[in-house]
Amino acid sequence: MKIEPGADLRALTAPYGTPKVVRSISQIASSFGGFFIVCVAMYLAYGWFFWLVPALAVVAAGFLVRIFIIQHDCGHGSFFKSRRANSFVGVCCSLVTLAPYASWRRQHAGHHGIWNDLDRRQSGADIYSSCITVAEYEALNRHQRWLYRLGRHPIVSNILLPPFVFILLYRVPFDTAKSWRRERRGVFITDIALVAVVLVLGLLIGFERVAAVQLPIMVIASIIGVWLFSVQHRFEQSYWVRHDEWNFNQAALLGSSHLKLPRPLQWFTGNIGFHHVHHLNPHIPNYRLQECHDANPVMSEAPVLTFWSGLRQGRFALWDEHLRRMVPFRRTSGAA
């Protein structure tokens, strides 16, 4: 089925953009409930069965990713009809995910305004949904190419940077304009609340135990979350064009992957693998994304990735304007 540039695909998605309050509340209960239950189990196991702590940390991280998806939906105003309800739940999520709600929401909204447009690429910290072209890379000097490759190396970008961003970098308004006063204030309010929570927990059960439980969860969850975001935007058969060629339908369906995950992983990741549907209509709550996808055959035009093929996408770092696909660094004359 061909994607017609003038087709109103957003109209097809409109019926699914209404949140269902019972399902939203149920998702909050299952996500936060599961997260806190596993955390309590980790604290109890710490003194007696320490070997259980790392295994339980993986499960807790899955729940934390699901909580981040709720925060993501709240940021788009899609989790509840009420703006106040979305903001309240989003702020509550941020105290667990460590991502300040107001600043993250505004920065993420910028991503939805310019994705896959080569002439409107964001600069700064977003290395996960953006890229440079082969020609731009080859125009860099040797030192600049080395720095660029270092930042995009899978070990650096997918393992080392995510915990650094969530645990440390989000503690300051590092990528927040000075004019965003409300968002900058929200960063520091979030920090104060987090310090209070850590102090209370540390005084009650010990700071060493708190660190041994919470840090592994955050490290694992941040790595998973960043990988999801990256693989949904940067993959071999992606779609990047210049602004005069950019088309909303094609950017959404061809520039966002459909990541097919096993059912348990799909549940923990809040259906975010249907990212092409999300880009067509960010107001669809995560629990209705598959419903929208299954009801509209045109959605099958999106590039499909599996968990295993998704793991191989980290090597595709540059956009080749001649081949019209992402390529690894070794495909360039400036690879050395």
TrEMBL record:
Enzyme type, top EC level: oxidoreductase
Which EC number applies?
Answer: 1.14.19.-
Task: Report the protein name in the record.
Answer: Omega-6 fatty acid desaturase (Delta-12 desaturase)
Keywords for this entry? Membrane, Oxidoreductase, Transmembrane, Transmembrane helix
Q: Which organism is it from?
A: Limibacillus halophilus
Q: Please, which domain of life does this record's source organism belong to?
A: Bacteria
A GO term (biological process) for this protein? lipid metabolic process
Which molecular function terms from Gene Ontology are attached? oxidoreductase activity, acting on paired donors, with oxidation of a pair of donors resulting in the reduction of molecular oxygen to two molecules of water
GO cellular component terms listed in the entry, alphabetical order: membrane
Question: What residues does the Fatty acid desaturase domain cover?
Answer: 50-297
Q: In its keyword annotation, does this UniProt entry include Phosphoprotein?
A: no
- Indicate the transmembrane segments per the record: 21-43, 49-69, 85-104, 155-174, 186-205, 211-229
Indicate yes or no for the key word Transmembrane: yes
